[in-house]
Every structure is written in C-alpha cells, then in structure tokens.
C-alpha cells in the first residue's frame, strides 16, 4: 500500500537546473515548535524555503512541491562535488523541534511513514541507498539535522540508506595533519565537502561532527579518533560517491 499523501502546495519552488530527475534524497528536521508552524513557514513566499514532503509525528505526509520541481530546502550545500543540491534532490522534512528545542526521538508512526515514502521514491527513481543523506551531510558547517537520534541503521536495514557498524573505539587521536589528511580523503570519497590540507581546520571538524552524528551517534560530539577515521574509510571504500553526478 502506498503512502496516504495530502497535498498542501507551497509556492516556493522552481525548475530543476540541468537535471532531468532527482538523484539524491535529503532528510531534515523542521527545527520548529509545532508542525503547523513548520508548514506555515514552508508555505510562506517570504521565507523562500520549502521541501517536497513534510512528515508529521503521527505519520501524516504532506506533499508541498511536486517531485519534478526544485524545492528550496538544502541552501548552500554540496555532496559528491554537486553544489546545486536542490536541483539534484528530493527534500523531506520530519516534524521535530530539533536540538535547540529539546530534540525528542522520532516516533514510530513518523519513521514508518518515512519508510513507505522512501520506498515509493526509490522505486520511481534510480537513487542508490548511499545517496539518501541528511542535511548535516550536505551542509556540515551549518546544520545538524536530522541528528544523532535519527535511526539511519533502521533505514539501511530496509535498503533505504547505508550503514556499517562501528568497530570498538581506540585511543583519542592526536590531532595531527596525517590523520586529518586520511579523514579528508575518505570524506571526499564518500561525498562530504571538505578542504584539502590545513589539518583539523573548521571545515574538516564540521565534516567530522556530521559523520560522527550519523554513523557513530553514541559519541556524536566526541573528538576525532583513529577508529572513527577507519570507519569512514570503510564506508568510502564500499560506497564511493560519484562526483559531479
């Protein structure tokens, strides 16, 4: 059975640029107190933001922008060398107040509805599971969503994302340039935008936090360690991102 989707059109969209169909899915949380407030903002022309879908905590799914169009959800972002993420992606907002407002877990009805929606999207388009990412993945210096409480492992079990279990942690790493270079190379191979060189600069640490929050959520705010860098290297070797898709 398909997802029961209600239409609530937003005026905030435009044509996709130089892309015939989406090849990414970007998951967000709304970061607002209520679903009504989030829906109002995503539908307000003055806000200049939108998404293709909004998934409420009770499993209700609203379609705001047609999939053929370019919604305005990712902002300044990049994945695998693609800087116009909005043109390449379908944006899904999950109703959740986010880190600044208590950040509760994502409830079962919401996750089940998201899984149904993703199944339909990935059936319609040849989007690989590794190209279902979070807002923090494509904009690590600006965003944290959907955050460490989002169950990426659950999605991966259904074939809607990717996951590798973390190996036992090791000693905290010395923040040396050699380890930073390893992390930067693996991050770029997997899809993150990171600088080249510069050691553990702000951009590299932002990507570390985004990776850690997604794949090692038990220590989302932990500093770099050797086990984490090795974990990302394993992910990148198994699911290398095709740059400039």
Outline the secondary-structure elements:
Layout: E1 5-7, E2 13-15, E3 24-29, H1 35-42, E4 53-55, E5 61-63, E6 69-71, H2 85-88, E7 89-94, H3 108-124, E8 132-134, H4 135-138, H5 152-157, H6 177-190, H7 202-215, H8 226-238
Parallel strand pairs: 1-5, 3-7, 3-8, 4-7
Antiparallel strand pairs: 2-6, 4-5
Main traits of this protein?
alpha/beta; 245 residues; 8 strands; 2 domains; six-stranded mixed β-sheet; Lysozyme-like; two-stranded antiparallel ribbon
Describe this structure in words.
There is one protein chain. The chain contains 8 helices and 8 strands. It is of the alpha/beta class. It folds into 2 domains: 5-157, Peptidoglycan recognition protein-like (Lysozyme-like, 3-Layer(aba) Sandwich), CATH 3.40.80.10; 177-238. The strands form 2 sheets. A 6-stranded mixed β-sheet has the order 1-5-4-7-3-8. Strands 2-6 form a two-stranded antiparallel ribbon. Helix 6 runs parallel beside helix 8. The radius of gyration is 17 Å and the shape is globular.
């Amino acid at each position: 059975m398909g997802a029961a989707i209600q239409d609530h059109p937003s005026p905030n969209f435009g044509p996709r640029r130089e892309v015939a169909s989406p090849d990414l899915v970007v998951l967000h949380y709304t970061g607002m107190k209520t679903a009504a407030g989030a829906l109002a903002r995503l539908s307000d022309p003055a806000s200049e933001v939108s998404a293709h879908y909004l998934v409420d905590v009770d499993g209700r799914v609203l379609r705001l922008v047609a999939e053929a169009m370019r919604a305005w959800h990712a902002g300044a972002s990049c994945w695998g060398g693609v800087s116009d993420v909005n043109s390449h992606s379908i944006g899904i907002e999950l109703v959740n107040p986010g880190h600044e407002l208590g950040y509760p877990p994502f409830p079962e009805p919401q996750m089940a509805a998201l899984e149904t929606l993703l199944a339909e999207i990935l059936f319609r388009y040849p989007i690989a599971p590794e190209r279902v990412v979070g807002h923090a993945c494509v904009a690590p210096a600006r965003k944290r969503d959907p955050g460490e409480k989002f169950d990426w492992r659950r999605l991966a079990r259904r074939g809607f994302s990717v996951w590798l279990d973390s190996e036992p942690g090791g000693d905290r790493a010395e923040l040396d340039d050699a380890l930073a270079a390893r992390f930067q190379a693996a991050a770029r191979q997997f899809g993150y935008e990171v600088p080249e060189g510069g050691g553990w600069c702000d951009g590299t640490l932002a990507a570390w936090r985004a990776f850690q929050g997604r794949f090692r959520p038990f220590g989302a705010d932990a500093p770099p360690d050797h086990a984490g860098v090795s974990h990302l290297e394993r992910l990148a070797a198994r699911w290398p991102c095709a740059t400039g898709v």
